[in-house]
Design a protein that fits this description.
The chain is an alpha+beta fold. The protein has one domain. It is about 10% helix and about 25% strand. The protein has one helix and four strands. The protein has a two-stranded antiparallel ribbon. The chain is globular and about 55 Å long. The relative contact order is 0.27. The mean pLDDT is about 90.
C-alpha cells in the first residue's frame, strides 16, 4: 500500500453532540452503496483474517475523518 491517504467513501464519523452522555464517543453515518463500492475497490487492503482496517483521525481544521489504515508491521528479525 502507498503512503497516500485513502479516505473511506460513504462513511463519515461525527464527534458526539455536546449534550450527549460521556459514554458516547461519536456517530458513524454510512451510505451503503457508496461504502460497499469503496470496499470492493479497496479489497486488496484486506488482512489475512478478512478485515479492512480504518482509522478515525482529527483533521487540521478540527474535523474528524475516516481513512484506510495502511500500516504494516515490519519484520525486524533480520538475517543472522
Amino acid at each position: 500500500m502507498s503512503n497516500d491517504t485513502i479516505f473511506a467513501d460513504g462513511l463519515k464519523f461525527f464527534e458526539k453532540h455536546h449534550d450527549a452522555p460521556d459514554f458516547v464517543i461519536g456517530t458513524i453515518s454510512i451510505m451503503p452503496k457508496q461504502f460497499v463500492d469503496w470496499l470492493r475497490a479497496n479489497h486488496k487492503a484486506m488482512d489475512e483474517k478478512g478485515y479492512i482496517k480504518l482509522q478515525v483521525l482529527m483533521g487540521k481544521k478540527g474535523y474528524p475523518y475516516v481513512k484506510l489504515d495502511t500500516y504494516k508491521k515490519e519484520d525486524n528479525r533480520g538475517d543472522f
